[in-house]
Amino acid sequence: MYRASARFFGIVLGIACLSYASSVQAQTSAPQPMGVGDVRAIFTNAGYQVGQTYAWDWTSPPVNSFQVRDPNSDRVLMALVYADQAGADTARAQAAAQDHTSGDAAMPNSVGPRLVPGFGRSLWNGNVALVQTTEAELIREYQSRTDRTSGMDGEQLGLDAPALVNASVDLDFQLALIAGAVNL
Fold this sequence. Notes:
Layout: H1 2-28, H2 36-45, E1 49-50, E2 54-56, E3 63-69, E4 75-82, H3 85-98, E5 111-114, E6 121-125, E7 128-134, H4 135-149, H5 171-179
Antiparallel strand pairs: 1-3, 2-3, 3-4, 4-7, 5-6, 6-7
């Protein structure tokens, strides 16, 4: 009788250990990458205006992007969706190597390098990067690039060099992506 009880207890203990190990493994495994359709749906369902998706398959790593606009303000968000975590990590490392301002000690680790001219620093969630700006900043960036392309030199015109956009990704955009918690 004692051996049967000990054997039964051993089996139950073994099953419990295996169950615990599999639950820990499930919690620590890498999250599934979000698809561009999923990210678009999140922002659409949150009440934002979502623009057309552009596939940048000639870049390394390839990325899909689209703009998200707040109908109640001039805020503009760009979502960059990489195929997987490895692609996102590569893009972030490449951007950090080119972004001379990414070493600011005052910036938290979740804030990444600048990815898109005219937009602020990136915020990352898995394989998705978000960058934010305003409509006014986009117009200013477009005008600056147009002037340079047409041969107008800002220094000759007495203009200052375009300032880097310091917009960070607002909390409502972050919450929409993380939890789908925002509804305008």
